[in-house]
Amino acid sequence: MSVLIEVEGLGKxxxxxxxxxxxxxxxxxxxxxxxxxVMRGETLAVxxxxxxxxxxxxxxxxxxxxxxxxxxxFDGVDITRLPKGEMRRMxxxxxxxxxxxxxxxxxxxxxxxxxxxxxxxFGLVRSxxxxxxxxxxxxxQVGLPSAFMDRKPRQFSGGQRQRIGIARAISVDxxxxxxxxxxxxxxxxxxxxxxxxxxxxQESKGFSFLFIAHDLAVVRHIADRVAVMYLGRIVELGTxxxxxxxxxxxxxxxxxxSAPQPDPDRRSDRIILSGDVPSPTRIPxxxxxxxxxxxxxxxxxxxxxxxxxxxxxxxxxxxxxxAFPITRRRSAA
Amino acid sequence: MTGPLLEVKxxxxxxxPKRAPIRVVDGxxxxxxPGEAVGVxxxxxxxxxxxALSILRLVPEPPARVSGSVLFEGRDLMAVPxxxxxxxxxxxxxxxxxxxxxxxxxVMTIGDQIEEAILLHEKMSRAxxxxxxxDLLRLVGMPDPEQRLGAYPDQFSGGMRQRxxxxxxxxxxxxxxxxxxxxxxxxVTIQAQVLAxxxxxxKRFNSAIMLITHDLGVVAEVCERVVVMYAGHVFEEADTRxxxxxxxxxxxxxxxxxxxxxxxxxxxLHQIEGSVPPPGTITAGCPFRPRCSQRMDRCATEMPPLVxxxxxxxxxxxxxxxxxxxxxxxx
Lengths: 333, 331
Prior knowledge:
Chain A has helices at 54-61, 84-91, 111-121, 128-141, 158-170, 188-205, 216-222, 240-245, 250-258, 298-302, 326-332; strands spanning 3-14, 28-39, 43-47, 69-74, 77-78, 94-97, 176-180, 208-213, 225-230, 233-239, 308-311, 314-316. Chain A is of the alpha/beta class. Chain A has an eight-stranded mixed beta sheet, with helices on both faces. In chain A, strands 2-1-4-5 form a four-stranded antiparallel beta sheet, covered by helices on one side.
């Protein structure tokens, strides 16, 4: 598999730019020195809790917001330094699916206008008839009848709206799709429908898929590789089997053991982390996870562990990554 | 065994005109025993939250019309004068809601809010009350409780606010704690803390818990018994293991198979077709019929009754009901 996107040393700091006279709020370090690549045709999931920077990372990858440092190389082109016009042409190859399909669909526009907007703006349809044909095709691909074309978004359920959002994203046949929590607002019985749909489309169209989510079970189902984020940094990155089967970072382990499972017989040797995630305005020195880490040592306060390869394709940012997973470490102790 | 703590019988909640009522809760019956943790599971529109609010008499009438009975320790809460309900809410029945910010007073310190809950229901000196507030905050895992008494809700994170809510709910050692999606807005590591706290509270005070949620994982973790609701009806009721291992309702079965887990190996998720019907759109027969893979002619006209499948296991489905019962009901 070849590389589609190369992310190098990407960082984003949001400064308080308000003109109000009240004291400026401290800058928020949302993404901090993140490097990884996205392969062609793969599904890479970014998982983490709220405030970990996963949504900001998704927006940086699409160049919807400029990075504070670092670069994003899309198919050989550094898109963070691209002139406006060229970036616009590039956008045809990258699309986004949002969490709240209602918030991302204009209530005044018909379904057909919403879905066809990227097609029209990139000049991919010439006539009204061609446009309607394409929209009907796209509706069929996401499992909706073409009769829905002339309706407004409010006439649809959450699941149907998400289908419309997906139809719009795939309309321009993108090489890269970012989906930010696409199923977390949906009812349980609808989640499975949308996950299956996205999987089918990804397989048939072969786009690279960045799937941002907090639900570990959903990620495990859909992803090829997984990046775990904490306070703006990737703390673990590997194949699904590596991250779920043999997690090396204590945070990944804690996340996996915290997720309630629909299995009444699961033994509960849960690692309950104490305290809350620190504010991204005051990221701890050294390892950002050390304030909640059950195995933190003095070195963790002083030195930030780099994201380093623990085995082929499996990277971990922890001073003690080589040691056993903590569950086993604890029982051995 | 002592009698049930809570017995809801044939609870129905309607909105809209009498001629064409929109029934959001339709003949719900459920029982909770002292010290028991019961999960009420359902998707949006299942009526699970309205059921809880009706038990507390917090559904405004009008516009709603509530009927049926709610026996709490044998006393019918539906017959209690409105003005007396506040003696029961907070003292006998504690409440935790999904969004603590909308239940906490933003301009009152958390210490005063917890103290108020005690003041309303217990005779204690001020010093005793203050000591109890600190105890409660310690119980819910608030670090430095003495220092945090004077803080306001917006000075806390979501998880910490939910702890303050739990402290208010537990202020008078209620016999029943109703928690409506208490961890839905929380991150998974914080959710684990709050769930552990609820189990701890229950162990210490032997409070019963009615946990309303859409999350099957949370239910499996916390509850002994589960009630599954759909479109205002109870579809199935069983002890947790039986429900997860031997469900007798196609909806429950479909739901369980459609959720990805950390151990499942399926390539594709099972999917229930269609979506939850908006309230009031299905007036006859079983509301799950349009989405059901096992539907029969009869489902279009008659809502199946809850039929016993084993000890405490009941399901409302014509397709899975034992033959004798299904035929007997028709007679």
